[in-house]
Amino acid sequence: MVDDLKTGTYGVDHIGLSVRDLASTRDFFCDCLGWRIVGERPEYPAVFVSDGHDVVTLWQVQSPGDAIPFDRRANVGLHHLALAVVDQAGLDTLYKRVSNWPGVVVEFSPERSGAGPKIHFIVREPSGVRIEFAFDPRLEEARKAQ
């Protein structure tokens, strides 16, 4: 019975993204979003970044010029990475910063997700990975308390 099933997992350890330009994507996460580098593997090359809650591994593709951009309607794989934002003011501030960051393409500006109340926006970071930033007022107090 499903009610008796206990999960064998405990959250997400990390998310690994293959990127076309490791330096520009690292700079986006660290300089634009304020994440910090928590590890590196120069021989791969890879950089591990964290916002203090989650870790994202950025892996440089072998041949950036030959890399095929992801098409969410045609390819199997990560559709997008969704990052939570604590409050509406933070989402608005982040949108202004992210949308003006070099190499970022805005897919859509802040809007309700479906009927709401969640508000989100999606961009493609400098290597082309789709990233959603979302604020859900139903979770605001819990996230501010962390």
Detailed description of the structure:
The chain has helices at 22-32, 88-99, 140-145; strands spanning 15-19, 36-41, 46-50, 55-60, 81-84, 105-112, 119-124, 130-135. It has one domain: 2,3-Dihydroxybiphenyl 1,2-Dioxygenase, domain 1 (Roll), CATH 3.10.180. It has 146 residues and is an alpha/beta fold. Helices cover 20% and strands 32% of the residues. The protein has three helices and eight strands, in the order E-H-E-E-E-E-H-E-E-E-H. The strands form two sheets. The protein has a four-stranded mixed sheet with strand order 1-4-3-2, with helices on one face. A four-stranded mixed sheet has the order 5-8-7-6, covered by helices on one side. The model has no long low-confidence stretch (mean pLDDT 91).
